[in-house]
Amino acid sequence: MEEVQAFTEKVPFHIYLLNIFYCLLPAFLIYLGILVGFPVEMTLFIHFVIELIIPKIIISQFKDSYLFRIEWRANRFEGSLIMGLVLGFIFCGLTILLYYFFDKILGWDLEDNLLREPIPQNKILEIIAAFYLIVIKPFIEEWFWRSYCYFIFYRTEIDNWLNSVLWATAYVVLAIMCGLEMKGCIIVFIAFTLFGRIQLFMMKSYGLLVAVMSHMGASFGVMLCYFLEKNRKFGE
């Protein structure tokens, strides 16, 4: 499987700025989807288009453009499977522990916020959505944020953090729309910004596979908390 490895040169500044605005689209999609009441299937499909299909089209159209050139190189979906599994388990456990700490020990009562996540109530659609969120969404997000965007933003270390902040923004919007209080939203912002920077390091140092699997572990932890809370099993 081949992906885009790098731009031949740093992209022009106007393209850089346009991509910053483009990276705010996922947050806007979440806000609009919940506000208007889009079906979850439509929201997930649009997410797929924004973070995978459109970037692929941009790459294919601009790789030979006079505006700026993109070099198509082999970036295989590889890395240590063992490391990916270990990190996946670690991030899964860490996600569950953090939820338990804030919800049960500190008493932030996050159950209502978690259960407001836009997950379909139909059993079949619920399973499909869970599969998408645990397996497909991490791959799409890691490719978009840690591969495609990385080579646009990679100018200084500040850009690495900008990449992570823009990614975290979408999750902060989701937290707000699910009714999380301000202190909780700040925690979400800090946690996802740090996680995003860690994922950039993982992708660059160990490969896209490791980054995707660690992301899958965190997503599985979130969904496990969701289903346990939904069935009144968490903390028993």
From TrEMBL:
Segments forming domain CAAX prenyl protease 2/Lysostaphin resistance protein A-like: 126-218
Pfam families: Rce1-like (PF02517)
Record-level Gene Ontology MF annotations: endopeptidase activity
Domain of life: Eukaryota
Any GO BP: CAAX-box protein maturation
Transmembrane helix recorded as keyword: yes
Protein name in UniProt: CAAX prenyl protease 2/Lysostaphin resistance protein A-like domain-containing protein
Native organism: Euplotes crassus
InterPro entries, alphabetized: Rce1/LyrA-like_dom
Record's keyword terms, sorted: Membrane, Transmembrane, Transmembrane helix
Transmembrane regions: 15-36, 42-59, 80-102, 122-140, 161-194, 206-228
